Amino acid sequence: MNALSVQNLxxxxxxxxxxxxxxxxxxxxxxxxxxxxxxxxxxxxxxAIMGLYPSEGSISLNGESIANKLTYKIAxxxxxxxxxxREIFASLTVKENxxxxxxxxxxxxxxxxxxxLFPELVSRSAQRAGTLSGGQQQMVAxxxxxxxxNEILLIDEPTKGLAPKLVTExxxxxxxxxxxxxxxxxxxxxxxxxRIAQHIIVMDQGRIVFQGxxxxxxxxxxxxxxxxxxxxxx
Amino acid sequence: MDTFLLIGITGIGLGALYFLVASxxxxxxxxxxxxxxxxxxxxxxxxxxGLWFSTQVVHVSNTWxxxxxMLIGGxxxxxxxxxxxxxxxxxxxxxxxxxxxVTVGIALVVGAVLAGWFGNDLRLLPTPPWFINTVxxxxxxxxxxRFLYIAVAVILLISNIALLRFTRIGLIIRAGVENRRxxxxxxxxxxxxxxxxxxxxxxxxxxxxxLVSAYxxxxxxxxxxxxxxxxxxxxxxGGMGSVPGSFLAAMIIGVIKQYANYYSPGLGDFVVVFLxxxxxxxxxxGLLGKVKA
Lengths: 234, 293
Description:
The structure holds two protein chains of two kinds. Chain A is 34% helix and 26% strand. By secondary structure, chain A is of the alpha/beta class. Chain A is globular, with a radius of gyration of 17 Å. The chains are: A alpha/beta, B mainly alpha. At the A-B interface, α2 and α3 of A face α6 of B.
């Protein structure tokens, strides 16, 4: 059963044709990693799914079309989004950031989950999110997405720019929820992808060029050819 | 000293009127990035509905009538603002030039319709008998109406802060000022927050319209002009989107203008523009505004 199905997705921004008929599916209760060099359209794909960019083509969530719906309706239908630059609300406190995102106050299990995953957020709940470190801000961004029971989590480069210790912490948290959450993960950090992804999709120049098993990531030559990075020590 | 005190309190009273216009402008621009030149027409509509209530619905001039006129003026202006937002502004988000052109057009149309209907002459707005009283502070005789303007502005400030700090819609508005796109990505219909802000901005302008009319001894389609200009100056000096900033800036401007006009008649407007230029050069984000990332 696929949670998300994207078929023949095209995105044009200011006369630039960014996505050229992208098609893929994300199976339920699994992690699918969207890989590729910088600028190939991975983040654009997530934004188009979220309705943040106008697009052509079909996008369906559990069989229901969400293409070109308003962004807030797409989110309400169960699509959570963690953007590349975190986009936490800097002037709000940690608690306010999470409260704002919470759609069901009575779901205390979800609140417990996020504070179990990121215990540091408990002691920082009254702190303004703009004063947090990059890693802590990423925790807030992920907590904001996990505080609701969503159908799928779209997460864009969650470990980008983080110190190694924080990369481990964020990776651990994603690893813990990976089993129960459907996730479409854009990530350059291949060890994290190898650890939690069950499917990989590779994009190049706005097109899907590979879909398959993450086992390929263990082949340095394949990694070098497909992703343009050294895979020797990954 | 008595004159100094009198001018100071009168200046604060004038600042209170500026704040009533500026608070809505500040929120509307801060949250939605809408350059709303029709805001003055909200003030005028509120003033005329307040006049209608005071002269056509009730025929006595007392405190309750005046409070009623303020509420009717506020609600009518709020509903008019909501209508403008729903019918016109909603189609023009992110289109600043179109917003400016259309809202200037609305202001001109509203002014022309009211002028055609009522004429441009001042129409006396009934006020409670105590409006002409003075209060003695030391040996200074302070007109009592100034304290009413200040009280209404303070109530509005506290209400705004309470709404923004302690309610969910306030949380959405504060987040929306910062990053509207991300608010929608969290599943929140930010349009509802936009409409609320337009209504509240219109309400404040409408209440301000009734008080400006009382201060100016009458209602006319032309009363909004100067106040709208000062409202924009207050918003820029106070910081876009900051209601406390608008309050602070309004008080500073009101007081400085009154003192300047007293010690050198006609100098008030120049000093305020000079202050505006100084703030833009030294602190472009305004006194309590935040630098946009």
